[in-house]
Amino acid sequence: MPDEERNGATGPPRMHTDQLAIDAEQVERLVAAARPEWAGRPVTAIRSQGTVNAIFRVGRTIAARFALQPDEPVAHRTALEREARRSARFLQVCPVAVPEPLLIGDAGEGYPLAWTAQSWVDGDVVDPRAFRDARDLADDLIDLLATLRDVDVAGEAFRGYGRGDVLAPFDEWVQECLRRSVGMIDTAAIGALWSRLRDLPAPAGRSLSHTDLVPGNVLVRDGRLVGLLDTGDASAADPALDLVIAWHLFDPAMRERMRTGLGSSPDEWARGAGWALVQAIGLVWYYESSNPVMAALGRSTLDRLATSAL
Q1: Residue 241 belongs to what H/E stretch?
Q2: 105 by DSSP, 3-state: which?
């Protein structure tokens, strides 16, 4: 799994003003109630780059995930059920290890929402600073994306929300982030790039996409891709969406290796840059103090975009 154990900590750091409280003692009781056969296994809070869920390791083989922000309980459980179905499907086609959904647990012990347990996946979270020119990892990612693009999604439409359709509807979000980021990033360069990318045409077709292929969801060992996390939103989307990983990880030579290895057209490659911009633009101003790893990722990705020859 990507995350280091938090020495002496029992819960996640605070990143959101409305963040829900959850700690290892609560998790231990919730796990025991949901699956008595798991009772007594050590529960450890995990340091994660993630901003959506608190992660706890249960024993050696289970990861329990708890949403960090409030939601309507029925809608939240419905979303978790949908994520479990998507994760199970992705498990069947992904060429590297991914979590297997194990259960959806009930609210309780002071935590107000349903939660999930998945199998633990071994590996180290990829570090963008260490893999800028990693040819083996670039080739592994090419193989991964090529495999996903070969999955039959005929008849499947984009799910209708989030990233993965067209870029233009994200203009309001990008403009707000640019206003909030003055003095923190090169807003002039990023704003000019966005003005060229936002009106790119929609993709001609859809392919199976992880939809959140950021470094925190990519596991490596000895420099090679061994696993992916957070597969609950995997669905049919713009094939360019997963190209964000090239901008999050690589310098120009390895980005070009990915572009040519996947045979990306100029429009597809530019849309991938657009999705990376949409994803990275909010990371610096929002997480500058609460999640420095995510803020640093936003900066490095935006720097790559601002200095690219798109």
Answers
A1: none
A2: strand
* Residues 40 and 178 reside in one and the same domain: no
This prediction has a pTM of 0.90
> Which residue matches tokens 């995930």?
65
Residue 138 burial (C-beta neighbours within 10 Å; 0-12, 13-18, 19+): buried
Tell me the C-alpha distance between 304 and 96, whole Å.
27
Query: How many whole angstroms separate alpha carbon 177 and alpha carbon 66?
Result: 27
Pseudo-torsion of CA 123, 220, 266, 301, nearest 10°?
Answer: 80
Domain assignment of residue 286, given as a range: 124-306
> How far is Cα 302 from Cα 21, in angstroms, rounded to an integer?
32
Is the domain of 179 the same as that of 248? Answer: yes
Domain boundary among 119, 147, 174: 119
Query: What is d(CA 21, CA 67) in angstroms, rounded to the nearest whole number?
Result: 10
User: What is the distance between the alpha carbons of residues 159 and 234, in angstroms, rounded to a whole number?
Assistant: 10
- Tens digit of pLDDT at every position of the chain (310 positions): 544 444 335 666 777 888 899 999 999 999 999 999 999 999 999 887 678 889 999 999 999 999 999 899 999 999 999 999 999 999 999 999 999 999 999 999 999 999 999 999 999 999 988 999 999 999 999 999 999 999 999 877 666 567 878 999 999 999 999 999 999 999 999 999 999 999 999 898 899 999 999 999 999 999 999 999 999 999 999 999 999 999 999 999 999 999 999 999 999 999 999 999 999 999 999 999 888 889 999 999 999 999 998 8
Q: How far apart are CA 282 and CA 164, in angstroms?
A: 17
Structure token digits, residue 50: 């993630």
